[in-house]
């Protein structure tokens, strides 16, 4: 099987909600010439053979899909309903138009409620339907049980983001855990034996709703994954400078990074 056919995830965006560079900021990271310091908001593409699904739909989704030459997606899986993780949803219109059927959206009830409220025009039955004027979606409720998608088993993992329950996901020996400040006791066993952990870490200073670098490294110390990539990164963390301060086996992630599953 070629690399193109092998299961893998592409990190489409690795920034916090403000993105990097941040609007109006002239700090060293925002003005950096290093392409790995240019970060779009969070989305992930998971590929298996000819099938691709997304984890989250950040505000730059159209730009990300064009950049990666992704022509079709089979579904979307959501971690939570915050704006920087859902606002690209309207760009799913093209896929419903091409497929002539709704795009499956896998999420918890609270996320569905947020999407229905935020994109109310997509669900307004009083408006004449058009195949391309609004996204066609069908919701698939998920909880903490594993489910199958595009030939892969997806294991949801309960995480806490400030006070908000959110989901991370494990696929084979890779886990994607963005936007997290606490891991509940019952979730630690689901994160054992990882080859790769993609873990949110916003910056060095403490934060009320995200792990900082110190908190993320405590998770790494407990889980001992073979490799950790830190994501949901703010403009306070330059790629090269930060990596020099991280222990072996831990690095910042970057946009367009490919992780084999």
Automatic annotation (TrEMBL):
<dbReference type="Pfam" id="PF12706">
    <property type="entry name" value="Lactamase_B_2"/>
</dbReference>
<keyword id="KW-0378">Hydrolase</keyword>
<dbReference type="GO" id="GO:0103043">
    <property type="term" value="F:phosphoribosyl 1,2-cyclic phosphate phosphodiesterase activity"/>
</dbReference>
<feature type="domain" description="Metallo-beta-lactamase">
    <location>
        <begin position="40"/>
        <end position="232"/>
    </location>
</feature>
<dbReference type="InterPro" id="IPR036866">
    <property type="entry name" value="RibonucZ/Hydroxyglut_hydro"/>
</dbReference>
<dbReference type="InterPro" id="IPR001279">
    <property type="entry name" value="Metallo-B-lactamas"/>
</dbReference>
<protein>
    <submittedName>
        <fullName>Phosphoribosyl 1,2-cyclic phosphodiesterase</fullName>
        <ecNumber>3.1.4.55</ecNumber>
    </submittedName>
</protein>
């Amino acid at each position: 099987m070629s690399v193109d056919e092998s299961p893998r995830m592409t990190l489409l965006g690795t920034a916090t909600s403000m993105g990097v560079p941040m609007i109006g900021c002239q700090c060293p990271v925002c003005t950096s010439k290093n392409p790995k310091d240019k970060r779009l908001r969070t989305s992930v593409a998971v590929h298996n053979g000819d099938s691709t699904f997304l984890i989250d739909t950040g505000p730059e989704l159209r730009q990300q899909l064009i950049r990666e030459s992704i022509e079709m997606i089979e579904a979307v899986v959501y971690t939570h309903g915050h704006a920087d993780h859902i606002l690209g949803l309207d760009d799913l219109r093209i896929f419903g138009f091409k497929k002539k059927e709704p795009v499956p959206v896998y999420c918890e009830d609270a996320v569905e409620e947020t999407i229905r409220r935020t994109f109310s025009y997509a669900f307004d039955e009083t408006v004449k339907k058009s195949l391309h004027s609004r996204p066609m979606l069908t919701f698939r409720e998920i909880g903490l049980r594993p489910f199958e998608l595009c030939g892969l088993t997806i294991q949801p993992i309960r995480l806490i983001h400030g006070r908000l329950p959110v989901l991370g996901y494990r696929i084979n020996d890779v886990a994607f855990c963005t936007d997290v400040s606490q891991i509940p006791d019952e979730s630690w066993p689901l994160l054992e034996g990882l080859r790769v952990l993609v873990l949110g870490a916003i910056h060095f200073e403490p934060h009320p709703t995200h792990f900082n670098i110190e908190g993320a490294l405590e998770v790494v110390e407990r889980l001992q994954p073979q490799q950790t990539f830190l994501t949901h990164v703010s403009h306070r963390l330059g790629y090269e400078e930060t990596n020099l301060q991280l222990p072996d086996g831990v690095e910042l992630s970057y946009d367009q990074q490919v992780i084999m599953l």
